[in-house]
């Protein structure tokens, strides 16, 4: 499948691996894919994000992804649902971090030297990449671009889609900017 990726899409995938390495984790997740996508400039996805006001909220998205990682990958909607059952996720995170250190629930290993080799992709990250292929095929595009990855991130359930939607970036809004009529259409 990787051979069908454009240069920009490949850069997103390798950037996601770099994001995981910087974070000291062995598994690349969909949040890493989103962070790598946010780092891109001069691509169709970066155009779409900019058209949707990305310059104003990129740091907020990064912070929200970091908070979700601290919550062990729980989305805000999941944390809110648990709060409705009387479970305070913030309190649980605070207690775990008090005993085991900040970031203990993120699944990040502190003994980074134990493992060497390739980073694996989580099921969620694989789903995003597979969905990007399906989106490209459905649009009859020959190659998978970073715009297809962005569309996949907005349509796969999970933290990245929730965080993007909180900032008005939905499948429909990205699709409208990329393929719709008018001045906002990406070229």
TrEMBL record:
Q: Is the keyword Zinc in the record?
A: no
Q: Does the keyword Transferase apply?
A: no
- The residue ranges crossing the membrane are none
Q: Where is the Clp R domain?
A: 2-187
Matching entries from InterPro entries are given as:
Clp_N_dom_sf, Clp_R_N
Sorted keywords for this record are: Repeat
* Database matches in PROSITE patterns: CLP_R (PS51903)
Name of the protein described by the UniProt record: Peptidase
Q: Tell me what organism the protein belongs to.
A: Streptomyces regalis
